[in-house]
């Protein structure tokens, strides 16, 4: 059984990005610049945005974090997005989700200039992705593809089961795996006899948001398992009072899988590097 180490792969990719940025600067070109909008004080969101800023510094990007009170109006937030859209110094913009309930996330996402939509959520980028045209791919599915490529995992002709149908992971992951010549099945909360699908899968991408949902008896021997889930589960024995759990029962599935991603240290770091790759692409364009 092989561990698909997202920390290791993402570090190599960050090193490559850093080298390319240094080359751009030597050529007299602009330094890539990523802006992030954060609304409110959600702990997980603040941690994630802080990590993105740290990643930018490591690879030589400029970064800007605009932090607004949770009571900001939708109109004012749209003005902030428009301001960044029209700022030629900024190459990529992300709006950290979730947003407060009084703000329409769809409206904000669609207000971002698709040429700066390095999260890959804008309908224009989704459409280009669907057609297999150059675009900004959603960071998590993009990271998964990079991980599979790094470990030279064969996808052509394989049966890939994606568990979850979110716009952020499940749907785009299914499209990208189809483009990698997989036969793709999408399972979700309404799927009947899910075991039938997972037990025939060569590759499983678990993005259902339920801790340890995928058990060993649902997986055929030699399967490749990509665990996208990450949930805080209370644990009195831990100093923090919780542990991070994926959507896969790692202990049991690792015994039958050919390769598997850990949580943490698997898909998470690859998501962050996917965002950096998109921003670099935006700056070069």
Layout of secondary structure:
Blueprint: E1 2-3, H1 6-26, E2 33-39, H2 43-59, E3 62-68, H3 74-85, E4 92-95, H4 105-111, H5 123-131, H6 139-150, E5 159-163, H7 170-179, E6 183-187, H8 194-198, E7 203-206, E8 224-227, E9 231-234, E10 242-245, H9 250-253, E11 259-260, H10 267-284
Parallel strand pairs: 1-11, 2-3, 2-4, 5-6, 5-7, 7-8, 8-11
Antiparallel strand pairs: 9-10
Task: Explain what you see.
By secondary structure, the chain is α/β, with parallel strands linked by helices. It folds into two domains: 28-113, Leucine Dehydrogenase, chain A, domain 1 (Rossmann fold, 3-Layer(aba) Sandwich); 139-267, 3-Layer(aba) Sandwich (Rossmann fold), CATH 3.40.50. The chain is built from ten helices and eleven strands. The strands form three sheets. The protein has a six-stranded parallel sheet with strand order 1-11-8-7-5-6. A three-stranded parallel sheet has the order 3-2-4, sandwiched between helices. Helix 1 (6-26) packs parallel to helix 10 (267-284), helix 6 runs parallel beside helix 7 and helix 6 crosses helix 10 (267-284). The longest helix has 21 residues, at 6-26. The protein is globular.
């Amino acid at each position: 059984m092989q561990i698909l180490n997202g920390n290791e792969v993402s570090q190599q990719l960050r090193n490559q990005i850093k080298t390319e940025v240094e080359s751009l600067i030597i050529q007299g070109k602009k330094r890539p610049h990523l802006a992030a909008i954060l609304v409110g004080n959600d702990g997980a969101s603040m941690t994630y945005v802080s990590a993105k800023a740290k990643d930018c510094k490591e690879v030589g990007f400029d970064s800007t974090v605009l932090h607004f009170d949770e009571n900001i109006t939708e109109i004012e937030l749209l003005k902030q997005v428009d301001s960044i859209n029209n700022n030629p110094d900024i190459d990529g913009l992300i709006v950290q989700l979730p947003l407060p309930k009084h703000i329409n996330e769809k409206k904000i996402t669609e207000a971002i200039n698709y040429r700066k939509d390095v999260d890959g959520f804008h309908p224009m980028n989704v459409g280009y992705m669907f057609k297999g045209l150059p675009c900004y791919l959603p960071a998590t599915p993009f990271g998964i593809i990079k991980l599979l490529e790094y470990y030279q995992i064969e996808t052509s002709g394989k049966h890939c089961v994606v568990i979850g149908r979110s716009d952020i992971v499940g749907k785009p992951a299914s499209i990208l795996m189809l483009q990698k010549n997989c036969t793709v099945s999408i399972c979700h909360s309404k799927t009947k006899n899910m075991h039938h699908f997972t037990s025939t899968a060569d590759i499983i991408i678990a993005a259902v948001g339920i801790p340890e949902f995928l058990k060993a008896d649902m997986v055929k021997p030699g399967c490749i398992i990509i665990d996208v889930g990450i949930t805080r589960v209370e644990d009195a024995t831990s100093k923090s009072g919780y542990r991070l759990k994926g959507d896969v029962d790692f202990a049991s599935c690792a015994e039958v899988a050919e390769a598997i991603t850990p949580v943490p240290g698997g898909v998470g770091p690859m998501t962050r590097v996917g965002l950096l790759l998109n921003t670099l692409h935006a700056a070069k364009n």
